[in-house]
Amino acid sequence: MLGVGLDWAEDYHDVALGVPGKGVIEQFRIDHGPAGVQRLVARCLALEPDPAEVRVVLETRHGLLVEALVDAGFTVLPVNPDLVARRRGPAKKKDDAEDARICCLLALDQYAELRRLVPHGALGAELRAIARDDERAARDERRLSNRLRADLLAVFPAAIDIADGDLGSAVFLRLLERWPSATELAAAGYDDIEALARANRHGWPDRFADRVAAALAEPRLAVRPELARAKAGSIRLAAAQLLLLRAQRRVWQHRMGEILLGGARYGRAKQPKDPQPENAFPGGEIYLSMPGLGDRLAARVAGEIGEHVEQFATPNALQCYAGRAPVTRRSGRSEYIVARRLAYNRYLGNAVQQWAFCSLRQSAWARQFYDAKIATGKSHNAALRALGNRWLEILWHCLRLGVLYDEATHTANRQRHHALAA
């Protein structure tokens, strides 16, 4: 066995190599590039011909360096940086070479319970990347919508009435992109506004044009002309950005459904015409059968769990990975429960929290479970965490058994369990 400790950086990486019984035997630095990684792989294989016996410990689980080590067949063991920091000694001195040495000793410690990195496959990696980008785009969309609303209230309050509560509609954003101020919109003709609404597939273009005219005719407080001119560029920019975000998120959503089911979805039923199971994400139909999981949310959950659900030996392992399982602390006579874990996959945890909330309207037992937690004095978020914990357990069993979720079956199982407990 060969232990490898890596302290990674953007331009170079410090490396420490060690063998059982001797500890660290060699330390050096490599550049971040093909030549540096090839040098590291060649040196490791010279000391240990079996790549599976090369244990690499480093403080990240993502990036090109990690992918190159996995492709070389090495056993990659990502660790939390706090684990390395606790072993730096009383002085807590931060040194790259020392951190690499500590990582190497962790790799050689046969009693350290380090979890091996199970890499995502091609579909899983694409699904996770798309889902994370879509989540970031959703946050950007909310941020831009709030900024647009603030600008409109300041210099173009009539636009709020034109939006009629939907600042994200395509026809409204096209209107702002073309006429970003009240003066420019008032100079536009009725026919031009109706034509814009019809071009953007508005159901009632004449009604939309009438609403614009009514909003402009409403008496309002005067807006300073210089401020309106200054804000026109910001309003046009925000509208254009929101249109681009909406279009790209639709493309991502289509691709998410295609990955989960193995084919493009068509029709009102949104089912693939010619599904190809070999091109589908493992268990994609199971994820979509869960109440509260649509294309986007199912992709977020599935992308973080990955294709290899067997890496989670028990439902509790999956719950801990998502940060839904509470932590019990006992010391002497004291015993209390910490509601949230500090170390967990936050992408998965946030997705499960939203999943629990969305399931309240689609699952009767989920609503009953949530109401029971609220009745005992739990907060809204605490009740959702507990419900998400239950959903992860159900998902784990469905994935391991390869069966779709069935509300009637689960309700019958809950009733039988409660009867036995009584």
TrEMBL record:
What is the protein name for this chain?
IS110 family transposase
Under Pfam families, the record lists:
DEDD_Tnp_IS110, Transposase_20
The cross-references to PANTHER family, in alphabetical order and at most eight, read: PUTATIVE TRANSPOSASE FOR IS117-RELATED, TRANSPOSASE FOR INSERTION SEQUENCE ELEMENT IS1111A
The residues covered by the Transposase IS116/IS110/IS902 C-terminal domain are: 288-370
Highest taxon of the lineage: Bacteria
Per the UniProt record, the source organism is: Micromonospora thermarum
Under InterPro entries, the record lists: Transp_IS110-like_N, Transpos_IS110, Transposase_20
Q: Which stretches make up the Transposase IS110-like N-terminal domain? A: 4-157
